[in-house]
Amino acid sequence: MSEEQKQRILIVEDEKPMARALELKFSDSGFEAKAVHDGQQALDALDSEAFDVILLDLIMPVMDGFAVLEQLQQKGNTVPVLVSTNLSQPEDAERAKALGASDYFVKSDTPIAEVVRHVEQALGRHS
How far, in Å, CA of 117 to CA of 32, rounded? Predict the structure, then answer.
């Protein structure tokens, strides 16, 4: 797949080592990956660049993932948003999905390779 055909993923993750690991794994899996570390940086990136999918943490400084989902919903976002978080309560997943998240998984229960599969599935790609 050539550079211009790579699907772009925005990784919104405040834990920098995790963000870097995800960025590397998605790059190795044929994506153009960009990581930002809080919700406001995510909205800024989405205002200036096009992405095919968003991988969103919920608990972050400046603006949390729920606020990002609310902003995206208000803007009529059509890009799939997958939530990867340490919040494991069903009500958190329900709230995220009500705000437009297309998928929700708990980081500690989900290996990075499986996160890639979730993203590929959301985009209709096959690994």
Answer: 16
How many other β-carbons are positioned within 10 Å of the β-carbon of residue 15? 15
Q: How many helices (H) and strands (E) does the chain have?
A: 5, 5
List, for residues 13-34, the tens digit of each pLDDT value.
999 999 999 999 999 999 999 9
**pTM for the whole thing?**
0.92
DSSP 100: T
Residue 21 placed within a domain = yes
Look at residues 57, 66, 69 and name the one whose alpha carbon lies nearest to residue 14: 57
> Which residue type is seen at 8?
R
User: Containing H/E element for 85?
Assistant: strand 81-85
Asked if residue 82 belongs to a domain, the reply is yes
d(CA 88, CA 104): 10
Q: Residue 10 forms beta bridges with which residues?
A: 34, 54
Assess if residue 127 is contained within a domain: no
| 114 assigned to some structural domain | yes
